[in-house]
């Protein structure tokens, strides 16, 4: 009897213990829903990453039964180290896979379709799931608000369970712009994310898994799909203060979450320094939300004022633009404000600003405590004009680099994740926060390999250059143009190396035919097995110097022309600096292919041909990582590589190319107003009739691919000091340039 009792007691004790463990599990679960506990734990996580959460939190670490608890905790505690499997990434590189579409998933929202298409345009895209590092669902997760009706995909969890490779979300990336619903707008997705990474707009510090999730901006359906677009010129905004110190135009909610901040705004309205326009109109039946006559009258008056102001002009005319939280933490205003080069004032206390893992927003935004709204005006008055201008410019640069199209947003998201997996190939913080930014660094390049960030460099630019001669013709005698060209290169002091890129089906001539290099200079013959035209812009390991003078084999250049071009390039290493120039223009009469290419002589140009131009080697690396569709076009036509290079360089640098003093031989003589192909011996490779038509097609194709025309028109030409001036020769640094003619 006693014995049974004792065992019974033991049973009860075990039962109680099990209950206790269960309780702990649920306790942990319920904590997950509420931020408070997490915030404490999160802040501790940063300092002591080695402490195991399970042991600490529950004090039951010794029990095997906590397995399920661990699993639940894990997805909230996810970091790359514990929830992401990088084996495939290390093996196959950073490859992103998108699941095939299925009929039953319904139609994709415009935004999700743009995201998927952007991913497909990156070099990371793969169609082979077994080499995937990141997997992307083709079930639309953009809008997880059930009130959104058709955009909300029902039974999401059920669909996930149909995907055999879902594996509790491991190595998946889920995109979301809207989550939660009326009335409290909790950031609920309506399915278990598991170990999947979340790229989400309006994410709060409570939900954000630092170093694992990505905070996105919110963008509208009209946001461009492709290309880098510039913000409204921030530089032109001087004096930097606009007509209005601060402004806001938007809805105010009569009730519910987000209403407090927006409702407070109209107290700041004075119609000149501070323009705060709010309307009660939102949803249907908003009138019913007004408790009394006074409220209705106030709304009517506000609506009238609201309708008087144009939103975009207001943004353009304001120094600071308010970005208060709405129902959710983020709003379209953030991007719109940056686009108009207005300084965003963020009023959304818990919001993790977009891409804040890499972007230092303190330099371009003001983050203001929602509760201190009434003190905002004074604070903004005190910001100095110089700081305002700097913030505007930095904000505008961030906009064009990372936010100006869905392409840029998606590329930035992927780049952040790629850098977490390959920290050894990541861009430093200063690169992220300056132009041209981290998206312009191909993974194997360091900032010191680029023409940018000069002030951060240990070493300045090389003071010599490599000449790379693309050779498509045999060298029958030592009178061939290429021999003369090489001789002139040897006479140019700054030329340190000549590489002949042999892209001719016939074998090269005997070694003795090449003019021998003077002391301290080197000569190299590179034979190409694959005669692809894109290879002439390849960053060969053998290229010794930062600057590459790209040449056609039939070019004739005088040593002084070359020396002057190189000295000019040293001042503009981020641009293409060269001799023959061309121009693009649009003929609006043709809707489908409006872009035209012309070689007509004129004061304007936007292209400098790579048949005789100096280009930083960095651009050769970038050129080879351009989307394969564009490189294929170039190789299929065996043409247009120079146009593409000009597109790329202007896109990255935001600058036109530079044309330097040139000899008469490059001139095109034509009286016709329509563009004429250039004919003539020396121009032959640059333009003959068939090539010319192809070049028009290329240009329209590239514009399509880029989503914009990055080419920039210019009228600037650089000549040596005293060029053509009637002064003594001895006074001129480049006296022969004046007289060179052939
Ligand atoms: C914490 O982990 C890191 C990397 O795993 C290790 O280098 C470091 O020594 C650990 N610190 C402690 C206190 O164990
Ligand atoms: C997919 O990738 C795996 C791993 O690299 C490879 O073995 C397989 O052949 C690839 N399949 C296809 C269809 O390319
Ligand atoms: C800016 O405000 C001034 C004064 O209110 C007005 O005259 C001007 O047209 C506005 N500019 C724009 C671009 O809206
Ligand atoms: C072409 O130029 C005209 C005026 O020169 C301009 O109005 C039009 O917007 C341009 N078209 C494109 C596609 O940029």
UniProtKB/TrEMBL annotation:
It comes from Oikopleura dioica (Tunicate). This is Oidioi.mRNA.OKI2018_I69.chr2.g7324.t1.cds. InterPro entries: Exostosin (IPR004263), Exostosin_GT47 (IPR040911), GT64_dom (IPR015338), Nucleotide-diphossugar_trans (IPR029044). Coiled coil: none annotated. Its main location: endoplasmic reticulum. Residues 465-723 form the Glycosyl transferase domain. Residues 91-380 form the Exostosin GT47 domain. SUPFAM superfamilies: Nucleotide-diphospho-sugar transferases. Residues 32-57 are annotated as: Disordered. Pathway: Protein modification; protein glycosylation. Belongs to the glycosyltransferase 47 family. It holds the Pfam family Glyco_transf_64. Residues 1-30 form the signal peptide. It is found in: Endoplasmic reticulum membrane. It is a single-pass type II membrane protein. Keywords: Disulfide bond, Endoplasmic reticulum, Glycoprotein, Glycosyltransferase, Membrane, Signal, Signal-anchor, Transferase, Transmembrane, Transmembrane helix.
């Amino acid at each position: 009897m006693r014995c049974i009792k004792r065992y019974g007691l033991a049973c009860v004790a075990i039962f109680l213990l099990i209950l206790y463990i269960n309780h702990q599990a649920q306790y942990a679960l319920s904590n997950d829903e509420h931020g408070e506990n997490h915030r404490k734990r999160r802040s501790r996580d940063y300092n002591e990453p080695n402490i195991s959460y399970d042991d600490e939190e529950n004090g039951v670490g010794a029990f095997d039964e906590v397995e399920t608890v661990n699993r639940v905790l894990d997805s909230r505690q996810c970091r790359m180290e514990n929830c992401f499997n990088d084996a495939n990434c290390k093996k196959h590189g950073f490859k992103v896979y998108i699941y095939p579409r299925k009929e039953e998933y319904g139609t994709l929202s415009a935004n999700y379709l743009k995201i998927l298409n952007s991913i497909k345009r990156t070099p990371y895209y793969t169609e082979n799931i077994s080499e995937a590092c990141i997997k992307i669902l083709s079930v639309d997760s953009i809008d997880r608000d059930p009130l959104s009706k058709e955009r909300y995909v029902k039974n999401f969890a059920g669909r996930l369970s149909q995907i055999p490779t879902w594996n509790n979300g491991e190595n998946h990336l889920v995109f979301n712009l809207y989550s939660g619903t009326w009335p409290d707008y909790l950031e609920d997705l309506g399915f278990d994310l598991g170990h999947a990474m979340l790229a989400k707009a309006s994410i709060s510090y409570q939900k954000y898994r630092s170093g694992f999730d990505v905070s996105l901006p919110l963008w509208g359906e009209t946001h461009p799909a492709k290309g880098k677009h510039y913000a409204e010129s921030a530089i032109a905004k001087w004096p930097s203060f606009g007509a209005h110190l601060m402004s806001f135009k938007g809805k105010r909610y009569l009730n519910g979450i987000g209403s407090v901040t927006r409702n407070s705004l109209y107290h700041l309205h004075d119609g000149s320094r501070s323009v705060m326009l709010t309307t009660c109109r939102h949803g249907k039946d908003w009138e019913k939300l007004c408790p009394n006559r006074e409220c209705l009258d106030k709304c009517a008056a506000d609506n009238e004022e609201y309708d008087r102001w144009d939103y975009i002009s207001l943004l353009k005319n304001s120094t600071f633009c308010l970005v208060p939280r709405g129902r959710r933490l983020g709003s379209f205003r953030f991007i719109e404000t940056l686009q108009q080069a207005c300084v965003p004032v963020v009023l959304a206390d818990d919001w993790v600003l977009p891409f804040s893992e890499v972007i230092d927003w303190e330099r371009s935004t003001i983050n203001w405590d929602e509760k201190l709204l009434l003190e905002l005006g004074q604070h903004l008055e005190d910001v100095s004009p110089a700081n305002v201008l700097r913030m505007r410019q930095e904000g505008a640069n961030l906009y064009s680099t990372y936010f100006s199209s869905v392409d840029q947003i998606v590329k930035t998201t992927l780049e952040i994740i790629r850098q977490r997996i390959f920290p050894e190939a990541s861009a430093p913080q200063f690169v992220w926060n300056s132009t041209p930014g981290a998206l312009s660094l191909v993974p194997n390049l360091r900032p010191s390999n680029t023409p940018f960030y000069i002030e951060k460099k240990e070493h300045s630019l090389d003071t010599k250059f490599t000449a790379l001669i693309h050779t498509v013709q045999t060298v029958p005698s030592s009178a061939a143009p290429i021999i003369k060209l090489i001789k002139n290169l040897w006479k140019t002091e700054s030329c340190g190396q000549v590489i002949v890129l042999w892209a001719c089906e016939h074998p090269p001539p005997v070694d003795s035919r090449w003019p021998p290099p003077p002391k301290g200079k080197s000569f190299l013959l590179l034979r190409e097995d694959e005669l692809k035209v894109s290879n002439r812009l390849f960053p060969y390991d053998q290229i010794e110097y930062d600057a590459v003078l790209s040449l056609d084999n039939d070019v004739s250049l005088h040593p002084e022309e070359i020396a002057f071009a190189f000295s000019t390039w040293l001042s503009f290493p981020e641009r293409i600096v060269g001799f023959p120039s061309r121009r693009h223009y649009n003929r609006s009469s043709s809707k489908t292919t409006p872009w035209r290419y012309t070689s007509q002589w004129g004061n304007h140009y936007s292209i400098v041909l790579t048949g005789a131009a100096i280009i930083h080697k960095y651009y050769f690396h970038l050129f080879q990582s351009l989307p394969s569709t564009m490189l294929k076009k170039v190789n299929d036509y065996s043409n247009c590589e120079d146009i593409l290079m000009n597109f790329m360089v202007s896109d990255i640098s935001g600058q036109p190319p530079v044309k330097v003093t040139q000899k008469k031989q490059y001139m095109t003589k034509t009286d016709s107003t329509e563009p004429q192909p250039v004919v003539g011996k020396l121009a032959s490779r640059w333009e003959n009739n068939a090539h010319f038509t192809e070049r028009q097609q290329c240009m329209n194709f590239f514009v399509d691919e880029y989503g914009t025309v990055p080419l920039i028109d210019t009228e600037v030409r650089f000549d040596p000091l005293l060029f053509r001036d009637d002064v003594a020769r001895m006074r001129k640094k480049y006296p022969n340039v004046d007289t060179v003619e052939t």
